[in-house]
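Input (MFS transporter):
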Amino acid sequence: MTGVPRQGQALAGVVFASVAVAAAAGAGTPLLALYRSTWDFALWQLTAAFSIYACTLLATLLVAGSLSDHLGRRPVLLGALGLMILASCLFLIDDGIEWVLVARALQGVATGAATSTFTAAIIELSSARRRPLMTVVTSAAPIGGLALGAVLTGASLDVVADSTRFVFALLIVSFVIGILAVHAARETSACVPGAIASLRPQLMVPHPARPVFAAVAPLVAAGWMFSGLFLGLGPTFDHVILGVDSGAGNGAFVALQPAAAALFGIPFARRPARRAASLGALLMLAGAALAVAGLLTAQLALVAIGAIVGGAGQGAGFGSSLRLLGDAADSTDRGGLFSAAYLVAYTAYGLPVLVAGWAADNFDLRIVLLVYGTVVAALSVWALTGLLLHRRRPWHRTAERVRR
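Output:
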């Protein structure tokens, strides 16, 4: 009996570690604005520092996204948390944009290896009764972690003399706690041959899950692209357009959308997954329209409302997408499938921000934001249309027949 409470504590520790990994990425967002004002580099370099994280993350997902299906969950998570500690130590050097770029790149590699593995491990460590809720928790953890990191860093900029060292010292302690939790958790995936072959870049979507994946991919992309708007471009437009100048205000503002996604996503776990996904697409469409309207008219309150509404849509849409995908996979291919979902997510999170950063140096910022918001809205409509067209299709029954 003592093993059950111990594994429950280990599961809580693994969830905590997944939040800490995402918080490390979110912590860099308010710092990038500070670094730009201190070191006076171009806007494209700021968005490059943001996007290099997503680029290395994507490369790692392509190469190592299904590695934990072969080596087991624990070895991959332990290695990723160790790499996060190294990246945090590089942030402590803090004397040039070059070190920041290297640290962000290492964060991306570690997050790419850990994110889908955390999702698979948490679901597999959960009981059958709690699995639907924990699936939504895994979707909220990376989004909520981004918000937590941004708020923590933004607040520390106003109250701590050396905020960078304060924040990343806390994160290093968090990663050590995560290592202990992962070590204590039981292994949930058997070690099977093919680890080296799995490193060949590929998108792992098992045949039974392909109809589900095709339907939810635009919704995943819309939500994470909307997060990128605030976490990647927020430090620029909140100052230039909305007049937000304090570190705490900047951190709170850029964290508003991912915080809403994390908080509002959990209640949707009680709704049928496909219905929650459709509602998420509607909320994403409304949130994008409100946020862009607020940016074009320089109304902070309207942008904030759009961030909350769209954030709720991302939380509902991403959590329900993972539920639909999780039901269409088993432990032999779940890591690779979640890796494909996060590949879509982080492509939408990083690449559009990089393009928008270049465009903002050459065109009016408001025009760039209008185009950006229009793409998010179009993806939301695409997702909603796909979900409604497929609402009568028995995805999971089909998946079971293919497996047999």
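The first helix runs from residue 3 to 39.
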